[in-house]
Amino acid sequence: MPHDQLAQGLGLKSPVQTSEALVSAKRIFLRCLREVVGQYVVTPEEIDEEINELKRILAGSFP
Predict the structure, then answer these.
(1) Burial of 24 by CB count in 10 Å (0-12 exposed, 13-18 middle, 19+ buried)?
(2) To 10 degrees, the CA torsion angle through 6, 9, 10, 16?
(3) Which of 18, 21, 49, 50 could form a disulfide with 7 if both were Cys (CB 3.0 to 4.6 A apart)?
(4) Where in 1-63 does DSSP place strands (E)?
């Protein structure tokens, strides 16, 4: 959906606000995901590896 239509549907003032909201939502999601993954792996590197594996799985490119 184009950002201008999404902005209108969400009651935002501009497509720029829609874009900023999307960036913030992605950042919050990643922070929460890292926190959850961090509950079962130890190092930041392992967290990154797990998240990259999830991305590969969700993209359909299984190892």
Answers:
(1) exposed
(2) 40
(3) 18
(4) none
34 contacts 49 by C-beta, under 8 angstroms: no
Phi-psi region of 60 (alpha: psi -120 to 50; beta: other; left: phi over 0): left
In this prediction, residues 35-51 reach a mean pLDDT of: 94
pTM: 0.74
**C-beta atoms surrounding 18 within 10 Å:** 21
- As for how many domains the chain has, the answer is 1
Q: How far apart are CA 37 and CA 44, in angstroms?
A: 10
